[in-house]
Amino acid sequence: MSGAERAIAFRLNGEAVSAEAPVRMHAADFLRHRLGWTGTHVGCEQGVCGMCTILVDGAAIKSCLMLAVQLDGTEVKTVEALAAGDRLNAAQEAFKRHHALQCGYCTPGFLMLAESLKASGRTLSRAEIREELVGVLCRCTGYENILRAVEEYLSADEHEASR
């Protein structure tokens, strides 16, 4: 192993991963180009668009702002972990139901952000959800359907409990 690469080990979508990572490679590029997990999209590479959002130890992280070597010892979740085979998870179903995507390029970022918000257990108002969503940009559509989908997903447990 050269000095320009470092051995790292972490869990990716529930599976152990051991690999060598270039010390200056972004986590997004590492996931896509070294490991072949292409669901994490890259847009601006400056942390502005949020399309590369992944979960690292449960927190929504813009993976273009994180180095691959920083993944060492963490639990990483990408959009590929959401569906169970051909079955979409609840967030994906809400996006489908509300037509919350057009080209779909930003969708993984929104879905991973929604997963992070759901895992936080916080009860968010519509305005707070809207504020959280500003970290991911969509160039194709208005945010109303995305907001509705995330709102439905975050309140799903409340609806189930009231039935």
Task: Describe the protein.
The protein has five helices and five strands; from the N terminus they run E-E-H-E-E-E-H-H-H-H. It has helices at 27-34, 90-97, 107-120, 126-133, 144-162; strands spanning 5-12, 15-22, 53-56, 59-62, 75-77. It is an alpha+beta fold. A five-stranded mixed sheet has the order 2-1-5-3-4, sandwiched between helices.
Features:
5-stranded mixed beta sheet; 163 residues; 5 helices; DNA polymerase, domain 1; disordered C terminus; single chain; alpha+beta
Write a concise synopsis of the structure shown.
The chain has 163 residues and is an alpha+beta fold. 35% of the residues lie in helices and 17% in strands. It has a 5-stranded mixed β-sheet, with helices on both faces.
Task: Give the helices and strands, then pairings.
Blueprint: E1 5-12, E2 15-22, H1 27-34, E3 53-56, E4 59-62, E5 75-77, H2 90-97, H3 107-120, H4 126-133, H5 144-162
Parallel strand pairs: 1-5
Antiparallel strand pairs: 1-2, 3-4, 3-5
Helix pairs in contact: 2-5, 3-5
In order across it, which strands form the biggest sheet? 2-1-5-3-4
Total number of helices: 5
> Quaternary status of these chains?
single chain
Q: How many separate domains make up the residues?
A: 2
CATH-scheme architecture of the largest domain? Roll
| SSE order | EEHEEEHHHH
CATH topology of the largest domain: Ubiquitin-like (UB roll)
Number of strands: 5
Which range does the strand content fall in? 15-25%
The CATH class label of the largest domain is Alpha Beta
Structural class of the helices, strands and pairings?
alpha+beta
Low-confidence stretches: 158-163
